[in-house]
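Recall that a protein's primary structure is simply its ordered list of amino acids. Everything else, from secondary elements to tertiary packing, is in principle encoded there. The following example makes that idea concrete.
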Amino acid sequence: MRIRLLCVGLSIACGSPPGVDGGAPDAGRDAGTFDAGFDAGVDAGTDAGAFDAGFDAGVDAGIEDAGFDAGFDAGVDAGIEDAGVDAGFDAGEPFDAGVITYDDAGCILPWGAGAPFNLRVMAANLTSGSGQTYDPGHGLRIIQGLKPDVVMIQELNYGANTPADFARLVAVLDGGHVYTRGSGLIPTGVLSRFPIIDAGEWPDPQVGNRGFTWAELDLPGPRDLYVVSVHLLTSSASERNAEAVALLARLGANVPPSSFLLVGGDFNAETVNEAAFTTLSSRVTEGFPPPSDQQGNPNTNAPRSRPYDHVLVSQCLRPSQAGAGLVFDSRVYTPLSAVPPVLFGDSAAAGMQHMAVVKDFVIQP
């Protein structure tokens, strides 16, 4: 789809004071679940398929003659606004990919141009130490080892929070990611291996030290991916539902129902039956079964007793999901040799209050 913006402005808050909500250890956060087919997605094959193979196959094949002459003439002469013209001009996708069409549920249909590609997404509140930052490195090793294409990240503080510091952070991962970061003392953010078309932050009406950071990502094919990184309050289920109500209104005003959408991060939920999930269910849901670790535990807090962290998926993206997903705990995941440079004790590091949640998708351009 169309790339309207290639560089994203960053709102940066310096410092990382202790004792901010969401950062102090919180008795009982959850952990997640393992899906049998996940191992195949952890190895190097997934990484190659997630971006390089799928992207190259979808973008490079047939880009020139089919991309300009056939698609442009057909699109312009027929007077079709979103026919091959936009696809060819904006992202180098084949012009003859066709008109934007929809299924019975109102979801954009793929063009069928190019090979399917893997998409791995992660919810990650993985700071450690006493400063609610990624400086100690435990969380970065987990992200690096799981090789996500998209990360909905919380408490995004690193170094002095300068652009140079965040350039170092993405370089630690693999150098292939771009990012957008919200405002506040413990901001939310999005890391992406795909281009960021547009991004911003919606205010959270219940708290002032972070908001809902969102990004629109350019995937190969006709469908963009909208992602929202959230960090809800620990205080009460009613306040979390008020946050969900505000977020739902923002989604309704800004994200087309026909698009791919993910809402992920730290929901601080005591149970999976909280009202916040019901409120958001008209746009995004967990799916069943939920992610879990290899021992079947779906909880994501440090004691592995509560379901704090989630990746919620829209109706249009759900058919592309591959398996239930994974809650990653380095203390129970085997073999660790499959996810270097993760160390056994990373998920038990001091100040590490959450486990990562991963979901995989196979997308047809």
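The radius of gyration is 20 Å. Residues 158 and 306 are 27 Å apart (CA to CA).
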